[in-house]
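The material for today's practical consists of a large collection of protein records. A record pairs a protein's sequence with a compact description of its fold. Instead of coordinates, the fold is spelled out as a row of discrete tokens. We will come back to this pairing of sequence and fold again and again. Here is such a record, shown just as it appears in the course material.
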Amino acid sequence: MTATNETAICADVSRLTGLLSRQLKLFEHLGELSEQQTQYVDEGQSQDLLALLAQRQQLIDQLEKINGDLQPFRSQWDILWQRLDPSQRRTVGPLVQQAQQLLGQIMDSDDHDRDQLQEARGQISSQLGQVNQIGAARRAYAGGPAAQTAGAAARRGRFMSQEG
């Protein structure tokens, strides 16, 4: 391997390590927000949840940028990995593993929160259906025979003289 190739590989490894480190920090922060998200979902704090989701979106946008920067490394990962010396592998390997582990935890937590929100939405929908049924029953009762008879009696009373 020439000195130029070694310099290029070291620069690539340095850039890769920097990107992976930034990615890991963002995943850690996203994980913290994920814990708060679960709390907000469990407690039904919708306003706090919406604010937190905006924060998460900012982190996700940054992760997407890093993901794009990592794409050239991913496309040649096998070749790059073979070129790494053992100390570089000991640096890069754990960064990749930790990021994958955190991403898995975040995705599991998000799946759980989504299920909780869907369940809550189903309960609200069911309750709204019951309210609509009660309203329909009230309208039907208000327009039913008893209401019509009472209304007719009231109208007749208005036109009758006090003497009968």
In short: Residues 6 and 83 are 9 Å apart (CA to CA). The chain has one domain: 3-159. Confidence is low (pLDDT under 50) at residues 1-7.
